[in-house]
Design goal:
about 25% helix, homotetramer, about 30% strand, about 375 residues, alpha+beta, ten-stranded mixed sheet, globular
């Protein structure tokens, strides 16, 4: 590795809320500026901006380890972008225990999923088209970015009835993300393979990650960070195209699912950090070391074909289907033990589907109620 | 009371799910048939049907006591309708403890609100208009009711990926509710006044309940039982009206909020049962005793003006505003204690709004995070 | 009120632990020094020390409001002791939500009651008798206090296997409490009357609190703060007495149960603060205003006769027995609704006991499993 | 396998409690009678009795799968004992979800560990010595067993203040266990190696299980099932020995820790079932197939040397130490990531001990507070 670069990371502590005792909820924000950020070769183009966050869901901690490894690696690369990294993005979720485990996915008071609280305002696209369409591409981009930031600031500061705990956290993170051209939100599944949520228009980029499974996401906002940052630009692109103008704003946002929750593995994190650098190198963000994507069969699936399979009965599950290998029709996903039926019914039930699927993740516990989400599968898939 | 009627109640146990151990989740279903249900004066008109359920949210138990008192009272009235009553509607929520309290509002695994899982299929209205519009009003009603029931049966039985735990419970309750003309879903707030969710078109009926506060609900489906039973009929009415035909299907669905959660009071329940009988008498469902609505100022508010006020800071709350009394602009809703600030900041903060509101309910605990829903208020209100 | 005193309160933030994100767990510590603490009339006697804490159990928040009112009042009194006040004593419990409520009584990871983690080392008494018994009373007191503090410091700092989360919090609070002569630990019941845990030897002091119910506690350590501070001195007194020496160390520790949990009421807190000042005035700690204990019948009960009554069946409870009024044999404590039995069993069960009791508190929720602690009662009681 | 035996299993459903909705809490009880139970070769000696239960802690489900495999295997063996098998022993814990995981170890209302609620009455030993010591060994055994059963029945049925939910479950299981000569309580650790809790006097039996780690338990009752069944007999043996009489009652009770919680693996369960049969064959309970214990180094440790190591800081843990391999002084147990310290402190901390230990299990989640139980280790160990 070329050790001649020595990028300095700066750290800021962002205050995102308060608990009942008055304890401050804070999030650490790390920043690298582009190396030689006003150097000769780049002086006429704007410096791009990258935003990477982790651990919005409390139990999904491995992204913090990936950010650790990124911080270690980025210091010694040539950076052509400003890069912001936010581990421990959700200080409520991160510290919320119920029994030994971390309450993962939702606000324990309201039940709302922490990654469904971001903000989208479709009226901004109308406003941008009305106000900015006479200007050049760069001015439109800058103007729309300013509208997005102003809008999220309005939400944070000018609401007499206030914001929910989760909105207050999410909107402050979104303020950072709206300043970026590339957004990576690091998550994990429960017990899971690695997979990537990728907007349909960015599918060419998916092959630069060392991730075998890609979900292709349409332009529909459902509250997640990736959507909240790509949908506005996609809408704007469409609106301009409808008026006869082609603009490529070159914004990409991904949710990167790093594997299973409740686990930290710093060695695997190094591998995943290099996978992210491989993508960032492809986007021209880093140079100085060469990252080459692994050879692998990359499977893809449209979001509409990403299916949850709910347990057809309560019981104790021996999960059988391996992740990332097509499972033929009729082959068992799982067998469910029902000791209460032993002797006067079937104590063991094999569960299968009527068509081939690609299992991606399964529930975190062997104990399931009837209707618990047992597996998520690509029910129709193809190679990228 | 006229003791000459002796209606028999029948009981059925409905199986709505299974836990990990195989334990059956069951719901008791009580039924009265109309008195002399084929008697001379009613023989040419169909017997109407009433559906009343309670305790879909685990902590909201008082509706069970109201159903107890209704069962006691209905036995001695003349019934002009078949009446189905379902206490303990949600056997998961009902028995789910976290610490001393009952986890109220959502599936503890997924965070989804138990009363946001009902089903609505807008395509059925199109189908009904296409298939039934040539027929008489009664045939349209019977035909559409059949479509609703067939659709909910399809959801329950013909989905290869299955249903969530909550959908399986909700859809089976909805099957019972779709057979009814009048639906009452008995809930409570956290710490709360009594209030009524009433579809806008049924506002005249609100005055027959002894409930001072009415929320007027538009025709928008958000997953709740009341909406799932009135929206289809409202849509159908609108669709027929668009084709020039006026039909009044006379369907009414209400969510009745009985006060505070985590409490059983059988004496108050008797009062509330009589309030419901007052409404049912107005609808011609019961005779034999005279129930007269109480004189009271009944306030109403459109759903869009029913506002949650989120805590502007974390702290410990002394709730000051009384329910059901207009609170002038600037008068305190609450004062928030912040002992951590004592001596070097303000330890006591008074919270108020910039316009008059009518406080309806507040959070169940004194301890709140920044962003916890502190109060819900009618922010614009009028008398019915 | 005599406004001539203006005692200054100082504030310190004590660091008691860390969460997974690294967030510091802190506790605010407020201190008053004795007024004119080296004034003429007191210069030859040591300044006594008072320790008051609140909110060790997360849901029991009213003590914070009482400390707020004490801070407001103590500033204007003549203080003859140094006084330390610690609200929000348990930053984990204080901020731990499960649904809307605060997880009250135990570490959510381990289940251990937060008020059963204090430390007691019976060997210190042996050591004190061996090392100190030749000295005068004051030297014994000072020497034993030093042993207690050294021992708790050893626990905190010299354990290669570490301490549990709760021990680390408790021991740091106990360090403060061991420096005091008077210890008040402010708690609440679930839904509860006011009552006082009082060591048997200090029963004369109980009448200075405006609290109608007193539990008399024997010399047995079970992990609570009051016991951890009075048992060592009681043991030492007994050990000295066994060797023929009578010493009164004049140490008193109480657990003060302020009423119900999950509630803040600043007006009631003012009343309770004055009740505490009445006791402190009796002990010579404050002068400058006269606090007179209320006239009331004060009931007492030995701890062995303080009985939990467990629900004999699952069901939904209408709590009937009032607190603080003797309940005759056979009179109902509660009636339990069992809607699942309606029609084919008893839907309503009245629960009573075979002898007179004094109900003190009941469970926080109407929903109980078979075996839930329904009521706690004085099963044998007398007037103080 | 010799298929000539065809033992019939019988099933009974035991009612152990009720939830708030009235839902019955039940436990399935499976029984085999000894093959040819009154056959010639055994007719003069009493039929011994074996009791095996699983899943007292909600998340520890693998024992159910082991019982499934035992039921499959026992049908085809020659049984020289009556065998009772109870899966899903705790219907509250088994079905209690908080988020995706099963609340494992304690009553969610009270925090009391489900395996610390069994009953022990030391007075029975005194009574037995007084009443039975003149009789022969067999009569003493039968008499003492009768006393144990009568006492547990008294606890269940004759307590005017009732029992807790957990006691009611535990005591009914204990009634079954007190009828047995051999008791196996199947548990798991959080993330764990296999290990065995074995009373010190039965250490010779530990080598018949295919379990590498044995904890030797002294004669001290702490509320667990194994203790509740071996302590009374150990006490009685000691009491008789003190009076000069040697009796070997040949009672053995073990807690078998099968590995990690939240997992079902039916293949591993078959292996573990055979390990149990290997022990039961050694005790003369089964014949008909030969089970030979695996060759392995079996490590043992006295309970006093089984140490929990508590996290010295909050953070996210990369668990490094492997189970079952001695870890030298100074070698890392784990490394703890503290992203909040990156740049201005140590982001990565290696944790080690100052002497050699044998790691047995670690915490279930990577996220730990300061003071969370990180690892449990044999801190002083030897080979069996």
């Amino acid at each position: 590795m070329n050790r001649s670069y020595k990028n300095q990371v700066s750290k800021e502590v962002m205050h995102v809320g308060e608990m009942a005792s008055g304890a401050k909820l804070t999030v650490p924000v790390y920043r690298f500026n582009a190396t030689n950020s006003r150097g000769s070769s780049e002086q006429n183009s704007p410096i791009p901006n990258v935003y990477i966050q982790a651990n919005m869901h409390g139990a999904e901690v491995q992204g913090n380890a990936v950010i650790y490894q990124l911080l270690e690696l980025l210091g010694n690369l040539h950076l052509h972008a400003d890069i912001t990294l936010v581990p421990y993005a959700n200080p409520v979720g991160c510290n919320h225990k119920n029994g030994e485990y971390t309450l993962g996915r939702f606000d324990p008071i309201t039940g709302v999923n922490w990654n469904r609280m971001y903000h989208n305002n479709p009226q901004l696209v109308e406003q941008a088209v009305a106000e900015l369409s006479g200007q050049d591409d760069y001015a439109i981009e800058q103007g729309f970015k300013a509208l997005l930031l102003q809008d999220i600031n309005n939400q944070l500061d000018h609401n007499i009835f206030g914001l929910t705990t989760g909105q207050r956290i999410a909107y402050q993170l979104q303020k950072l993300a709206h300043q970026a051209d590339i957004v990576l939100d690091l998550h994990t599944g429960p017990i899971s393979s690695k997979h990537l949520y990728c907007p349909e228009y960015a599918r060419a980029s998916a092959s630069y990650f060392n991730i075998e499974h890609t979900l292709l996401i349409p332009n529909a906002f459902d509250g997640a960070l990736d959507e909240s940052t790509f949908c506005p630009w996609w809408d704007l692109t469409n609106a301009l195209e409808a008026s006869g103008r082609q603009v490529n704003f070159n914004k990409e946002s991904f949710t990167v699912e790093l594997g299973s929750q409740e686990q930290i593995d710093l060695d695997v994190a190094l591998t995943d950090a290099k996978s992210i650098l491989c993508y960032l190198q492809h986007k021209g963000v880093v140079t100085g070391e060469t990252f080459i994507p692994d050879q692998m069969t990359r499977y893809a699936c449209y979001l509409k074909d990403y299916k949850a399979f709910y347990a057809p009965m309560g019981g104790m599950v021996d999960y059988l289907a391996e992740f990332g290998k097509p499972l033929k029709a009729g082959e068992p996903l799982a067998r469910i033990l029902r000791m209460d039926n032993y002797g006067d019914g079937d104590a063991l039930h094999y569960i299968s589907l009527d068509h081939e699927v690609l299992p991606i993740l399964h529930f975190a516990s062997a104990s399931v109620n009837q209707g618990t989400e047992l597996y998520k599968v690509f029910s129709d898939f193809f190679t990228l």
